[in-house]
Amino acid sequence: MMRETKGFKELVRLTRAVVFLFFLSLVLILATYLLHVNPSLPESSHEEPEVKAKEVIPVWKAPDFSSVPGTREGKVIQYGRELITHTSSFIGPLGSVSLKANGMNCQNCHLEAGTKPFGNNFGSVASTYPKFRTRSGKEESIEKRVNDCIQRSLNGDAIDSLSKEMRAIVAYIKWVGKDIKKGELAEGSGLLKIKWLNRAANKKAGRKLYLQKCQVCHGNSGEGQRLTSNSNYIYPPLSGDHTFTTAAGLYRISNFSKYIHANMPHGATYDNPILSEEEAWDIAAYVLSLPRPVKEFQGDWPILKTKPIDHPFGPFADNFTEEQHKIGPFEPIEKFYKELNK
Ligand code: HEC
Ligand code: HEC
């Protein structure tokens, strides 16, 4: 009996110890978990605050190009894509269809055949055109908008709306945007919004950055690269006779900065940019100060106060200098127009 009681007590003590250890480990596990999910609890509070993950934008995805059928209609779309990616082989100084363009490809600026998120893609073109544009003060068709880029960005002559090439380009652009409902915008179409710089952009700083990050592909003075002086560009020019003109959309510093922030150096993406926004503004100021073809269109911006504040040429509906409209600071100009349009 004595022995049994002793054995029983032993058992009770053992059980207590096990139960105690069990609860202790539970508490420890709970504490580790809490610290893990919320590292700002005691102890770690002296650590650097965590960088907040960049907001994830649910971007639109273009339809799968391999799904285009081999029908007559499908072939038109395929030719359209070919014209976007290898424009200069058809329309350019070495073109098989027209010689009247500078040698750039649409894809140089509308990346991945106009499908890359925030790579100036065509996602929302079919759903929003025809649309009213303040630059012309008119309602514009897709054909008119394409010719705008041929004249201003490719420094060429407008092509006939009924030509095989224009029909193919429009068919392709419509196919790219076919899944977006009329009047709606594809998430991630066009260019990524970035903040205005709170100072004037700095060309000198931009030049230094350019030499470090862009020169290797685009050349020492932005001349681009081709294998021989009589072949198409491998790396498109940012300056000189073969690049976009002063009337092009990319000649506005905000457009240029947005484009390079999300896409350059080649391989950068909107959610994995290489240049900071500030670097993008400074490089833009430098590149846009390099020589390029001058082109003017009478009749642009018929209503002065609808001119974008970084439109680089007067007349303006304000008294800021042309230089400030080119490189900023833009906040005072923005404020002026907010008051004016109240
Ligand atoms: C040098 C760069 C550049 C080249 C080359 C270029 N574009 Fe553009 N394109 C732009 C920019 C920048 C915009 C947007 C302009 C703006 O928002 O003011 C644009 C806008 C457009 C739009 C309207 C997009 C929209 O969502 O409203 C279409 C369509 C277009 N381009 C077609 C073309 C075609 C077709 C070609 C080739 C024939 C071409 N572009 C060549 C820079 C370029
Ligand atoms: C690794 C090579 C490479 C580097 C580095 C690079 N780019 Fe590009 N860039 C390209 C290529 C290739 C294209 C054309 C893309 C296409 O056609 O698919 C391009 C297109 C462009 C365009 C539009 C077309 C044009 O000629 O105007 C601009 C603007 C541009 N790059 C600016 C820059 C700037 C600014 C930098 C430095 C921050 C830079 N790039 C760095 C390869 C590069």
Q: Can you describe this structure?
A:
By secondary structure, this protein is mainly α. The protein has 2 domains: 65-176, Cytochrome c-like domain (Cytochrome Bc1 Complex, Chain D, domain 2); 203-340, Cytochrome c-like domain (Cytochrome Bc1 Complex, Chain D, domain 2, Orthogonal Bundle). Helix content is 42%, strand content 3%. It is built from 14 helices and 4 strands. A two-stranded antiparallel ribbon has the order 1-2. The structure holds heme C (2 copies).
Count of helices?
14
Largest sheet: 2 strands, antiparallel
Overall mean confidence score, pLDDT: 90
What is the assembly state of the chains in this entry?
single chain
> Bound small molecules, which ones?
heme C
Strand order of the largest sheet: 1-2
Number of strand elements? 4
Q: What sort of overall outline do the alpha carbons produce when their principal axes are compared?
A: extended
